[in-house]
Amino acid sequence: MSLIFEKQITVTEKHIDGLNHVNNVQYVHWVEEIAGEHWDFVKHRTEYPKDIWMLLDHHIQYKKQVFLGDIITIKTYPKAPEGIRQPRKVEFYCNDQLVVDSTTLWVLVDAETQRIKRLERNWFDNLQ
Q: CB of 56 within 8 A of CB of 85?
């Protein structure tokens, strides 16, 4: 299995803002949504199936506008951990062009103790 997780979304009126393109806040929502869906898809294959990811930092770059009816492909994958931080890339494509690029930093929180867990650098190797 690849570390890349993806899905497609068709842009509807609820995604559009006053400038008639996808609202920037909508992309932030999709970043969190696909990260959660990816975790739900793979967590049973890790040592941390009950633990929770918490978002620490978010950087997003808007490259092109996307409009009503467009189909967006969202791709996400984890990068190598940085101490307690887990970077994640989320890329948005429309017509095979990168339209939005995002990098986020997450920490894994123990569901029982509410404490942050330090991950081994290769913790996700068994997901590949």
A: yes
pLDDT tens profile 40-78 = 999 998 889 999 999 999 999 999 999 999 999 999 999
Backbone angles phi, psi at 109, to 5 degrees: -110, 130
d(CA 35, CA 30): 8
Number of domain units in the chain:
1
The structure's pTM equals 0.91
Which CATH number covers residue 94? Answer: 3.10.129.10
What tokens appear for 120 in the block?
Answer: 């081994």
Question: Can you tell me the distance from the alpha carbon of 50 to that of 6, in angstroms, rounded to the nearest whole number?
Answer: 23
Per-residue pLDDT of 107-125, as tens digits, reads: 999 999 999 998 877 787 7
Cα–Cα dist 21/116, whole Å: 38
Structural domain contains residue 24: yes
Q: Taking a C-beta distance cutoff of 8 angstroms, is the pair 102, 90 a contact? A: yes
Give the Cα separation of 18 and 73 in Å (integer): 23
The Cα 11–Cα 26 span in angstroms is 10
